[in-house]
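Re-running L-lysine 2,3-aminomutase to confirm reproducibility after the cluster update. Everything else is unchanged from the original entry.
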Amino acid sequence: MVTRSLIACQTEPAPASWQQMLGSALTDVTELLAALGLDPADIPDLDPESNSFRLLVPRSFVALMQPGNPHDPLLRQVLPLRIEQAQVSGYINDPVNDAAAVYAPGLLRKYAGRVLLMTTTACALHCRYCFRRHLQPAALGISTRHHDNAIAQIAEDSSLTEVILSGGDPLLLDDAQLTTLLAQFNNIGHLRRVRIHTRMPTLIPTRITPQLCTLLAQSRLTPIIVIHVNHAQELGHDQATALQQLRAAGITLLNQSVLLRGVNDDSATLAQLSERLFDCGVLPYYLHQLDPVAGAAHFQISDVAALELLNQLRAQLPGYLVPRLVREIPGAAAKYPL
Ligand SMILES: *Cc1c(COP(=O)(O)O)cnc(C)c1O
Ligand code: SF4
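Result of re-run:
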């Protein structure tokens, strides 16, 4: 009996590392639909090729989708549709004019006191509505070797108190790369906070390891993590556990969402999201009006409808669970409240 149970233990698969989860992410539309028990005919506007911005979705995210539901709010965030090819006036490739904010290669400065470092162009998931979906890394100076110039620029500008790691997704950097970056920031006396904008804690929760928590908690700078969740269904058990680990390490957790037609454009869905976030130790921060990026016009909600949703939300929730409804206006001094 002992021998048999030992064998059982040995054949039990080890949990996949986050790198393995990335490597096994789905890139094939037919395979994704099959995993959900859906037929391509269930989705009339499907674009199975999606050559310009291919499907990419980790299996841990697919596992949170409702099988058999072509309108699943998680599926809708990743599924390529032919309507993305439509030319809609006002929807352009760089809707937030990142190109005008390049401060050093891969470094953007739009707002007082903070800069945004584009650490990588890779993401663990391709969001169909992403404002950087047409990003040309070369235009913003992003390469694997740009960090040193960016760090030098940050060190020179004593008005900066906060550095934001963005991308792509900065938690696709491994711990050694993050350690190096954080050590460089620690040496810049005027920096007080380091903020990480990432979808990894919810897309691939195994990225959140005790080593990562220690690495962030030991920094001289106060760490903040801003996650990106659009629907309560994205916060399953493993996601909640990962977020609780970060909270236990003393890291402030905030969430930003994008208001998306067919995903989260009703007040009950948004209220559930805020409640579930708070249960996971996360405060709602921003609810973004969609940036008018080419290919995403079908996700847009009118400002009038967005403000109506916000009013409904205010009537249902305590003030601290109501996100700030904002839009990015190129050239403005801050994200602009609606
Ligand atoms: C959105 C953004 C920030 C962060 O703005 P906060 O209002 O501080 O969250 C900083 N830099 C750039 C370039 C941004 O686009
Ligand atoms: S995770 Fe962020 S940067 Fe990456 S595709 Fe989604 S919205 Fe774009």
